[in-house]
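Fig. S4 source data, part A: sequence.
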Amino acid sequence: MGALEAGMNKQTARILINLLEKSGVHFAKGLSNEEVITVQHHFNVKFPPDLRLFLQTALPISGKFINWRAGLSSTVKEKQIIERINWPLEGLLFDIENNEFWMADWGDKPDSVEQQKEIAEQHYRQWPKLIPIYSHRYIPSVPYEEGNPVLSVYQTDIIYYGNDLAAYFKNEFRLTLPEGIKPPDEPKKIDFWGYFLDGTIFRIGD
């Protein structure tokens, strides 16, 4: 196939969706503009442009994907989505309570675990929000632009799982991308989360 435009576009999104369908992923009609606005307001998230385009081309609904549309009409699905959104914070708090995790930038570590968690959550709320895609894979919402990396988040064990959305799908579902889709060679640096990813974060208790 010929070269595609850089980044995500309708053609790239459709190619990825077709490949994912062949891997067994089920899709529904893509989110409308109105649905995107409602979802983002309801769940307090903001889809990066490439994820938004992908979800508006077709909405993955099988397995461990986030069915955003169902979250607007089902209290069970809504609760599940909120739990997935809160998963990174819950993992952080778990490591504080059970694995003595503490960041030097947070200042002196209080003796009380509850105070530790309160301080950690205050800082967490200032970090770029992570939006769940599939299982415990997340994409940062900041910067609000194409090409943010996808992260695998399990407590404070956080790694890159794709240098962009296309690379992520390739890695997660073992896709063979056509030559026209070329993910970046290096992942984009993300504020704060990059400290986990590049190994420079200093954890008291390591």
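Fig. S4 source data, part B ends here. Residues 1-5, 200-206 have pLDDT under 50 and may be disordered.
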